[in-house]
Amino acid sequence: MKTGKRSKAKETSSKLEREFDAYARSLDLPEAVRQYRFSERRRFKFDRCYLDEKVAIELDGGVYSGGGHVRGKGYESNREKDNLAIELGWVVLHYTSKQLRGNPVGVVEQIKRVFLMRARMGVLRRKQWQ
């Protein structure tokens, strides 16, 4: 698969990802790209991303139940993924299920603030934030 392509495999979204999509829609965020592969170097994908803003959203479920995001190998792989994304100019925002469900407005408002910051830096193409 080439960088910048969505997976042709059947897309499966987690419950947390579907909840994020619903909150984002209801709070006027643009539609996010799902499961975006951002580099040829590794098969890493963002849960959701905004290409024009170059902002990635990672939804980290299983934090309190010992899920893969917080255990050895999974944690190491996620740090590698984050560092590669930053090297390539992405801002990566992480949210746990507790953060998203406990304060969806705050999550969406933070994402909008990051979009505005990226606009001030001249990083994005979407006119909405300029």
Structure description:
With 130 residues, the chain is of the alpha+beta class. It has 4 helices and 4 strands, in the order αβββαβαα. The protein has helices spanning 15-26, 72-87, 97-102, 104-120; strands at 33-37, 45-50, 55-60, 91-96. Strand 2 and strand 3 form a beta hairpin. The mean pLDDT is 85.
SSE map:
Layout: H1 15-26, E1 33-37, E2 45-50, E3 55-60, H2 72-87, E4 91-96, H3 97-102, H4 104-120
Parallel strand pairs: 3-4
Antiparallel strand pairs: 1-2, 2-3
CATH superfamily heading: VSR Endonuclease
Helical content (DSSP H or I, runs of 4+) = 25-40%
Provide the CATH topology. Answer: Endonuclease, Chain A
Q: Average pLDDT, to the nearest integer?
A: 85
* H/E element order: HEEEHEHH
Strand content: 15-25%
Work out the helix count. Answer: 4
Query: How large is the radius of gyration?
Result: 14 Å
CATH architecture: 3-Layer(aba) Sandwich
Notable traits:
4 helices, alpha+beta, Endonuclease, Chain A, 4 strands, single chain, 4-stranded mixed sheet, 130 residues
Short description:
This protein has 130 residues and is α+β, with helices and mostly antiparallel strands.
